[in-house]
Amino acid sequence: MKKSLTVCRPQSPESDSDYSIELHDQSIVIPSKLDHTADSFEKKDHSWFVTSQVPTDLTIQVQDITFYAHKYPLVSKCGYISQIELQPSISNLGYDLKLEHFPGGSETFEIILKFCYGLPVDLNPNNVASLRCASEFLEMTEELDDGNLISKTEAFLTFVVLSSWRDSITVLKSCEYLSPWAENLQIVRRCCDSIAWKASQDNSTTVEIISEEGWWFNDVAILRIDHFARTITAVRAKGLKPEIIGSCIMHYAEKWLPGIDVALEGPRAFGSGKNELQLSILSGRREEGGVGHNKELKMIIESLVSILPPEKEAVPCKFLLWMLKMAVVYSATQVLISELEKRVGIVLQDANVNDLLIPTYRNGDQGKLAISSEELTMHDIDAVQRIVEYFLIYEQQLPHQHKSGKLNVSKLLDNYLAEIARDPNLSITKFHVLAEALPENARTCHDGLYRAIDTYLKTHPSLSEHDRKRLCRVMDYEKLSLDACMHAAQNDRLPLRVVIQVLLAEQVKMRVAVKGKEPVASGKDSEQEESQSSAQMEIKNLKLELERVKMDMAELKREHSELQHECEKLNNKQRSIPSWLLGWKKIRNSSIFIQKVDGDESGEGMQRPDRPHGRMSSRRRLSVT
């Protein structure tokens, strides 16, 4: 049965005392002279007591704090308490009430209790959001009392908080622990709109703030990621420049995401060789924070990528590659990783080698599986391959006059190949495919590509001759500089055919340079004039060196032909000859057979007109021979 509270005057005027409390089943009779004002509040351990002349009749528990209060002041202002069915206390001297999931907790209920007793309450940006949510929870509407808490907190939010930048940030920060009440009451939305309006308005009107466009970055960086994302979305809707939005996102990422340190470790425990290298990702508090912390960082990464402005100038390539590494480390979704790779491909010409070295990361479960040596590479080669493909697709969509990034990308890719070539687990297939990723006209000079190939051959000395030739086909020997050709001519790691082609190409260059048709590039014009005599001497020395190499090559060819001739002789001796054929050859070479043949031939010549049968016998013998 629902218990209700009824206020009425006393029935008997001849009462001995000034006031009395009579309990009649489900109602409480309160005389008119009763005063429910609280003198003070006292806290003892985990309990709050209202100091008053009237004993308390209602016990309310919020979290781990118990409040001893009177029923009437709360019922007169809280519609929720007046409607619920109160449970009698164990001592039958009052009622017990437990408020679960109360917005703001015990601290907020303490302020509401003071408000219900008519004590002064201090509204400020730190508590107004929790009081607004708690008053909505308790249904403290104007129907119960004029100037109730809902109207007071709404007025404070509208006229005080939303008109101030600092107060809007403070209230939005306090809403982190008030979900879903703060969202349903539109407190978060209103604060985000207020912050966005002030940031865009000040940035577009004040010249001083434009020069200091990051004045609001530190303030919004203290917000939780979902509130920060809401704020950035509202700022973008106001038309703020994408460069400023990108700078704000970068500032937030640097504040909340840990750094990434790459270290080379020794052999892994699951059976790698002595020369195998493995990356260890030591990213801040990843191991210390546990699963919950890792999920929080993953959510931050995914949220920041989702709110990045689409313009290519919004954030630099360095930041995109850093976010890509963090997404790999914290196991972000494959869709998000693909989106980052596409964005990196658009601005790939602005990257550097160190940022492009994306580590190959595996968690503990993957490390326990049987992994091939190709999968133990230090860096994620497939990711870079996809990034280069996205770059080429983007370049094809641009007009011809804007295609100027292939030269920078070719130099970047050559330097990247030289870095990953030191990995002993890198397969020749991956290296070869990445080296041929760019079209032939992308590289004007193949010195960087030659350096990468030479580094790979040095790191992998066990390559077969076929693989060495296959790898060197990527180079164009005519695009090698003079220094590179000189180095290649003396490089014993290159196949012999490649050395010959390099020497021939360089000889053509030298002839043209000597005739004056093509000047040899040796620095600035002034330096060429000053070192003309030394250049001539160098050319003469190179000629002598080329002659010596040609003589050596001729000697090698002669020895090669002699070896081939000896091999043919050995093969002829080893052939099996039939015994009857050897016997027939001995008979043919004997003097008796020669005389016999001569006699037959002479007789045949004398009797040829009269003995046609003799011609047939001679032909038969000749055919046998």
Q: Specify the helix fraction band.
A: 55-70%
User: Compute the gyration radius: what is it?
Assistant: 47 Å
Number of helices: 29
Uncertain residue segments:
1-35, 204-211, 261-288, 364-371, 517-528, 601-625
Shape: elongated
> How can the largest sheet be summarized?
6 strands, mixed
Arrangement of strands in the largest sheet:
3-4-6-5-8-7
Distance between the termini: 135 Å
Care to count the β-strands? 10
- Return the average pLDDT rounded to an integer: 75
Label the structural class. alpha+beta
Strand content bin:
5-15%
Structure, explained:
The chain is α+β, with helices and mostly antiparallel strands and 625 residues long. The protein is 56% helix and 7% strand. The protein is built from 29 helices and ten strands. It has helices spanning 71-75, 79-83, 105-116, 128-138, 149-161, 165-174, 181-184, 187-205, 207-211, 217-220, 225-237, 242-256, 286-306, 317-329, 334-346, 353-356, 364-367, 381-397, 406-420, 428-435, 447-459, 465-472, 482-489, 496-515, 525-530, 532-573, 579-589, 591-606, 612-624, and strands spanning 22-24, 27-29, 40-44, 47-51, 58-62, 65-69, 87-88, 95-99, 261-265, 278-282. The protein has a six-stranded mixed beta sheet, covered by helices on one side. Strands 1-2 form a two-stranded antiparallel sheet. A hairpin with a 2-residue loop joins β3 (40-44) and β4 (47-51). α4 (128-138) packs antiparallel against α5 and α6 (165-174) packs antiparallel against α8 (187-205). The chain starts with 21 loop residues before the first strand and ends with a helix.
